[in-house]
From TrEMBL:
It catalyses: ATP + protein L-histidine = ADP + protein N-phospho-L-histidine. One of its GO terms (biological process) is cellular response to phosphate starvation. Keywords: Kinase, Phosphoprotein, Transferase, Two-component regulatory system. The lineage of its organism: Bacteria, Bacillati, Cyanobacteriota, Cyanophyceae, Gomontiellales. This is histidine kinase.
């Protein structure tokens, strides 16, 4: 009896062990099937008659080959970027430099960098502007562009052509960022130094030329004034024409000199005082109101009754005169010119600080004329650019000779430089509601009380 029980127990154990074995094998097969499914390459058809272990070995081999191909492609792209004439660097989500080519190392004076050792960007490149630029790209997930003046630190300049005791050199750089996966940011870099130096050289040449021309023009003007009182009445119209043209040429030269001064060292010539912008705009409009009244053009202001800024009063008055004059020339009879002012909260990605807690004042000046030509918009602030002469506002009833053709083509260029000197921006477009010319100005760092 006991033998029977013993045999039954043994059989039971064997049956249980067999069941566990087959259950475990089934689980392993299920897991192996899942692994094979994950490892199956796209457009790959496996012979299902093969044992699973053989399938696994084959797919592991294919996966290894694909990994090698990806490594080769990565190495190939890195080799291309390494020899590229444009700089490239890549940082991870923690702003650690993952990779950078030789051009980027030269532009940013990166010393002793190695891809095997992760280092923060700020450890290698002491550029707050570049660091904030990368953070902005990561935050917005939009490609951005930055042009800035990179200042070499003393430790970076030590290995460059840099005399001891001198201030570290600087270089103008342009960066273009690209958001990648997992917070990684790619940045392309190129030097703008040659372009900046070429522009500066051209500006110096134009300034010198304007200085040389101003003296003979003044002499011609004085001679014409002297002759005007001595010629016969029949010839007076000719002396008047000479005076008119010399006055226009002298104004053009003066505008050139003024623009060159603003472009080279604008902040040195600013005389900042506390100015109520609303009152300034109203005063300028009152000066031009007789011209507006003749054509029944109305001025409409929308915004706070008072906005106080630190401005150069004379320079900003010049901005207002030029912009109002521009709108009056293009505005139709019985038209309207609007000025809207509103206060904007600070940009969290831009560092400003002031007592009022308001970092930006935005000014919109627009009219209800025919607007600016799409072809002209990219060049509207370029010096000597006066747009397509055929694009005169038909509603104004003027011939081209009565409108902007009499200007120097420097008015809006001067406006832009004055705004830039105040650390602001100005953009020209056509207003979405009225269709007329629209100038959008942003001025930072409000002071005083804005009511």
């Amino acid at each position: 009896m006991s033998l029977t029980i013993f045999i039954a127990a043994i059989v039971g154990l064997l049956v249980g062990a067999s069941g566990c074995y087959f259950w475990r094998e089934s689980q392993l097969r299920q897991q192996l099937s899942e692994v094979l499914e994950v490892m199956q390459p796209a457009d790959y058809r496996e012979d299902i008659s093969l044992p699973m272990l053989s399938q696994l070995r084959r797919r592991a081999s294919i996966s290894k080959q694909q990994q090698q191909q990806l490594q080769e492609q990565l190495f190939s792209w890195q080799s291309v970027l390494q020899e590229a004439p444009i700089g490239y660097l890549q940082v991870d989500a923690e702003n650690q430099v993952l990779w950078c080519n030789q051009t980027a190392q030269n532009l940013l004076q990166i010393q002793k960098w190695h891809s095997a050792r992760a280092r923060l960007l700020l450890e290698l490149v002491r550029s707050y502007e570049l660091d904030r630029f990368i953070e902005k790209t990561r935050s917005t997930q939009v490609a951005n562009e930055l042009v800035w003046q990179f200042h070499f630190g003393y430790h970076e300049a030590a290995n460059s052509r840099f005399s001891k005791g001198e201030a570290p050199p600087t270089i103008w750089l342009k960066a273009r960022s690209l958001p990648l996966a997992d917070g990684v940011i790619g940045v392309f870099l190129e030097s703008q130094q040659e372009r900046v130096e070429t522009v500066a050289s051209r500006e110096r040449w134009l300034g010198d030329l304007a200085h040389e021309i101003r003296t003979p023009l003044t002499v011609i003007h004085l001679l014409a004034e002297t002759l005007q009182s001595k010629v016969t009445p029949e010839l007076t119209r000719w002396t008047d024409r000479v005076l008119q043209e010399t006055n226009r040429s002298i104004d053009l030269v003066q505008h050139f000199l003024e623009l060159s001064q603003l472009e080279t060292s604008a902040t040195e010539y600013l005389r900042l005082v506390r100015v109520d912008v609303v009152r300034l705009l109203r005063d300028v409009w009152n000066t031009l109101e007789p011209i507006a009244t003749q054509r029944n053009v109305q001025f409409i202001y929308q915004g706070p009754p008072q906005v106080v800024l630190d401005l150069d009063l004379d320079r900003f008055t010049q901005v207002a005169i030029n912009l109002f004059d521009n709108s009056l020339k293009y505005c139709p009879d019985r038209g309207h010119i609007w000025v809207d002012i509103y206060l904007s909260p600070p940009d969290p990605l831009v560092e400003h600080s002031n007592d009022s807690g308001i970092n930006r004042v935005e000014i919109d000046l627009y009219d209800d004329g025919s607007g600016l030509s799409t072809k002209d918009l990219p060049y509207i602030f370029d010096r000597l650019y006066r747009g397509d002469l055929s694009r005169q506002r038909q509603s104004s009833g003027k011939s081209p000779s009565d409108s902007r053709t009499t200007g120097s083509g420097l008015g809006l260029a001067i406006v832009r430089q004055i705004i830039l000197a105040h650390q602001g921006t100005i953009v020209a477009n056509n207003h979405p509601t009225t269709g007329g010319a629209w100038f959008h100005i942003i001025l930072p760092q409000v002071t005083g009380q804005n009511k």
